[in-house]
Amino acid sequence: MKKSWSARMAAVVLGASFALGAHAQQEIRIGVLYPLTGPGASVGAELRSALELAADIINNGAPGIPDLPFSAGKGLPNLKGAKIKLVFADHQANPQTGATEAERLITQEKVVALVGAYNSAVTATASQIAERAGIPFLNPESSSASLTQRNFKWFFRTTPHDDLFVHNAFDFLKELEAKKGIKAGVVASLNENGLWGTETTKLQTKLAPEFKQNLVKQVMYPAKTTQLTSEVQTLKAASPNLVLQSSYTADAILSIKTYKELGFSPDMILANNAGFTDTDFIKTLGKDADYIITREVWALDLANRNPLIKQVNDLFNSRYKINFTGNSSRTFTGLMVMADAINRAGSTEPEAIRKSLAATDIPGSKLIMPWKGVKFDATGQNTLGQGILVQIMGGKYNTVWPFDMASREVTWPMPKWDQRK
């Protein structure tokens, strides 16, 4: 009788676990699954750099940053100084490729855990493979709310999800009117049509009437489109004051170029992170990126509240000549959380790592994120994360909400394209 796929995978995982257990002091292989080529390559490169920095700190320390976990260096102390070995896989922003690569990492590369995968649609398929194989999967960045609604046992997510993020946007608009006297006016949305954008659209549809916002038009476009002319013309015809937008890097850049070309100039664009917080966004668009507000989970100007933010960002910048973004800071944090769990488990056995992840309780003072900490609920969702909003001004991200955390006042409305200097 042939063994089932699940049985074969379990045998592979068990063998890998025993093999790694015998050599724990040497190497712990963690699979990391990200878009290293294709439309997400630019953000993938930043996420890879963040992972490499985290692994280097875990393995070799970070002198001068004593409040950062593993800063004393020399590997995982509860595993006799075992070093983290990152095994990279490129999913090319393709869900099927992500699933195939996840299986390869587990069966051929013998990883004891997976971290990834940025794109929500890829995280969905890759984590299914990990779930069937009984391998811990930690997701630092994907925000589709449904990912932690699948009753998975092996899936953990450190970032807040879109239910919270979209709520944040509407909370902001409500407070903007109540505290600043600024009304959003007529609202429209432009979202990519993958899992992330589709779920965001549904949430916006649900929340707009609850928050008494006049959402008149919702436009969706193919996630890998190379032109947005018809979609922007549709938006322009609706004459919105505010555009809510969810786009990855290439299409976020394309949309702003198309807005300018077609003379579409709403009072404000309120974006849902992703492409709008990729370093390439400001680098490519220059001054045309200014004034946009985007939800975030990290900002350098919050260092006045948490010194770790500047200390670790300085280290990142010295090596890679870029600052952290909301994307890369979450990826860095994800690997640190996984390493913490493996160290507390004192084992590379998957079930021990899973139990350790479930028991995670890291205070905000040990993170570079402006969160209360990391603590997972029964679904694998971190309950202590939170979102912020930033506005791009002078090529920099400035925290503007929550208002009590703001480093500058909101500038609203944006100047029209022909009125910008």
TrEMBL record:
Entries under InterPro entries matching the protein: BCAA_transport, Leu-bd, Peripla_BP_I
Keywords assigned by UniProt, alphabetized: Signal
Residues passing through the membrane, by range: none
Taxonomy, superkingdom: Bacteria
Domain Leucine-binding protein: start-end pairs: 27-390
Short name of one Pfam family: Peripla_BP_6
N-terminal signal peptide: 1-24
Family named by the database record: Belongs to the leucine-binding protein family.
Name of the protein described by the UniProt record: ABC transporter substrate-binding protein
